[in-house]
User: Fold Protein ARV from Odontophorus gujanensis.
Amino acid sequence: GNEVFASGGGRAVLLCAMAEGGGYRCVECSREAAELYRDYRHGVLRIAVCKSCQKPVDKYIEYDPVIILINAILCKAQAYRHILFNTKINFHGKLCIFCLLCEAYLRWLQLQDSSQSTDPDDLIRYAKEWDFYRMFGIASLEQTSFLVGIFIALWWRRPKMLKTKSDFILLLKALLLSSYGKLLLIPAVIWEHDYTPLCLVFIKVFVLISNSQAIRVTLNLNRMFPWLAIFFGLILENGVVCLVQKMGWDV
Assistant:
């Protein structure tokens, strides 16, 4: 049935999957659950069954992390629920900073490519870090405006969904974690010129799809409304880009 025999590393993976203080969700129907599994000792664990859908509350607690990652890349709602509600993942802030650094460095490279010169004075300016810091600031501003646009749209159309601070924090965490697709910028940073604009477009689309799934899973919405919120976020982000360009800054 739903019994799992775990020992050593497998047992550690299961225990690490447990979040502190309850608040679990069924990965199938998103209903609240009191527990994910029951420990009968001697390495025998029994996965809890959801009282609503009669399916295992969280089948992923016995899966290898690689399998969970693959399911998340495939944007499966069950994998997202497992990560957001039933685990203790708290590196969303560090992940956001790392993605912004990669994006800033990629923009910095493109800026230097468009202004190459053999003048020694220009080479000295090229070595300065100001342009990189400026690109990081612009990328951070764009990301912030995108997130603000999403929250404004959600609060405007469905104000009851973000009525508490915990709801706001959970959705913010979901959006930051679902932006993991930006890590695909790393190959572009490593290989520098061996990428195409089309590749960057695909990365952007993948991140938006992941963001949409994160909103849908976190707030238990249909497929259309998250895309409307993302569209509003993109409008606000592009507005910031136009404003920055009017100031004479390259983006």
